[in-house]
Specification:
eleven-stranded mixed beta sheet; 502 residues; Amidase signature (AS) enzymes; binds glutamine; 39% helix; globular; alpha/beta
Length: 502
């Protein structure tokens, strides 16, 4: 097959039109991606579960709908395959969250995101690998082994949603769903050369998203182009009465923004505290070039200071463990998945202890212990209370910045993809990967990561982050889309047309 007719190389937008016009059936599209998974996933390990029968059945239903009602019966992503992060429930399909403690659990219900995807005719190929309960920046904390970066199989794909990003980068799926509590959509996007968006907190329902830190968690799109991400964003976003923090307002006009990207007259702020020291030279270089390009495109670029951003990481690593120590208490061996040591002679407490000791990995245990400590009597004000105050200061930094500029930009991650194993024994080094992404989670603001080229020193992808005010998600797509188009123009070909290693 030539490049242009290879279904796995097409964008989601193109695949949807191919299916709508009947140039290929949804079943053919699904089969092409399932074949690609068979060919490369032994090396990449993006998937924890591939639902071949379910995907083909869903694709068959799209073909039947088209046969009955014509193209008009299909939504904008009907027949397009997608990989779903294993932290979202899907009825009857294993959902492990990358943990042994949920091994064997098949949820009885669909997450709202899953339900909306199904209703839109999106073909769910399977569940993707992730750090256990979404704690990590490398996918190495998965109980089922790491995912490999399709650009260099000896390197990490980012985390926690490394499986979703790697599936998209390796052409196993044109689209994926990730979740972002501290950067788990954006940082994997940056290091795999893909596009990832964390919507405004409350923009996408958390119902059926297994909670890590409920005040931070947000599901969002992963794709190879800005428009594809916008199309997916529009399908999954919108009010849901099943999630009490879901925003009951119209979804920002993300698709329109992605179709008409334009930065002329926009004010773009470079966050002083998120550049320079600590950022890899090639990351900084590509970032500076992209900022210059934004200026050439007609944006007004200024430097903006967000003085409390340097404290965001420390605050996050108190707030997140506190919330997760509470959220993960429900995994006790009684209701879901694993139960260890229940031989009929042991007490409930002993069985719970054994289940947790065998079922949770080191990082989960570390955070549960940290969070329990931070919330304990006598320490609550000093740790959790102080962290919440810092969270308010970070939110105020955003508010002050957005009085001066329309959007903020920074590198998404301080470095390109590092080697598997390099930071596994050094939790603080691992946590530092999130230094630029965490502020947006603390404030609930939306953020996008866009591939902006390869770092000269190692030839690996670099991501630029765009941040916008709450409910101005469309601005991410306006800026991301404009930069993407300008880069394609300049280099004459998609500079990051997927990963070359496979
Ligand atoms: N890497 C961050 C952490 O380990 C982010 C996780 C996430 O966004 N789910 O907490």
């Amino acid at each position: 097959m030539t490049e242009s007719t290879d279904l796995t190389r097409m964008t989601a937008a193109r695949l949807a039109s191919v299916v709508a016009t009947g140039d290929a059936s949804a079943v053919e599209v699904a089969q092409a991606h399932l074949d690609r998974i068979t060919a490369v996933d032994a090396a990449v390990h993006a998937f924890l579960h591939v639902d071949t029968a379910g995907a083909l059945a869903a694709a068959g239903a799209v073909d039947a709908a088209r046969a009955a009602g014509g193209a008009a019966a299909l939504g904008p992503l009907a027949g397009v395959p997608l990989a779903l992060k294993d932290v979202l429930t899907m009825e009857g399909i294993p959902t492990t969250c990358g943990s042994k403690i949920l091994e064997g659990w098949r949820p009885a219900y669909d997450a709202t995101v899953t339900r909306r995807l199904k209703e839109a005719g999106v073909v769910i190929l399977g569940k993707t690998n992730m750090d256990e309960f979404a704690m990590g920046s490398s996918t190495e904390h998965s109980a089922y082994g790491p995912t490999h970066n399709p650009w260099d199989l000896t390197r990490i794909p980012g985390g926690s949603g490394g499986g979703s990003a790697a599936a998209v980068a390796s052409y196993e799926a044109p689209l994926a769903i990730g979740t972002d509590t501290g950067g788990s959509i954006r940082q994997p996007a940056a290091v795999t050369g893909t596009v990832g968006i964390k919507p405004t907190y409350g923009g996408v329902s958390r119902y059926g998203l297994v909670a890590l830190a409920s005040s931070l968690d947000q599901a969002g799109p992963c794709a190879r182009t800005v428009l594809d991400a916008a199309l997916l964003h529009a399908v999954i976003a919108g009010h849901d009465p099943l999630d009490s923090t879901s925003i009951d307002l119209p979804v920002p006009p993300v698709v329109e923004a992605a179709r008409h990207p334009d930065v002329r007259g926009m004010r773009v702020g470079v966050v002083r505290e998120l550049t320079g020291d600590g950022y890899q030279a090639g990351v900084q270089q590509r970032f500076d070039e992209s900022v210059a390009l934004l200026e050439e495109l007609g944006a007004e670029v200024v430097e903006v200071s967000c003085p409390h951003f340097p404290y965001a990481l420390a605050a996050y690593y108190l707030i997140l463990p506190s919330e997760c120590s509470s959220n993960l208490a429900k995994f006790d061996g009684m209701r879901f998945g694993l139960r260890a040591g229940d031989d009929g002679t042991r007490s409930v407490e002993e069985v719970m202890g054994r289940t947790r000791a065998t079922g949770f990995g080191d990082e989960a245990i570390r955070r549960i212990m940290l969070g329990t400590y931070a919330l304990s009597a006598g320490y609550y004000d000093a740790y959790y209370g102080s962290a919440q105050k810092v969270r308010t200061l970070v939110t105020r930094d955003f508010a002050a910045a957005f009085e001066q500029v329309d959007v903020l930009v920074s590198p998404t991650a301080p470095t390109t993809a590092f080697k598997l194993g390099a930071k596994l024994d050094d939790p603080l080094a691992m946590y530092l990967n999130d230094v630029a992404t965490i502020p947006a989670n603390l404030a609930g603001t939306p953020g996008l990561s866009l591939p902006i080229g390869l770092a000269p020193e190692d030839g690996l992808p670099v991501g630029l982050q765009v941040m916008a005010p709450v409910l101005a998600d469309h601005l991410l797509y306006r800026v991301g889309g404009a930069l993407e188009a300008a880069m394609l123009d300049r280099w004459g070909a998609p500079i990051l047309d997927g990963a070359p290693a496979l």
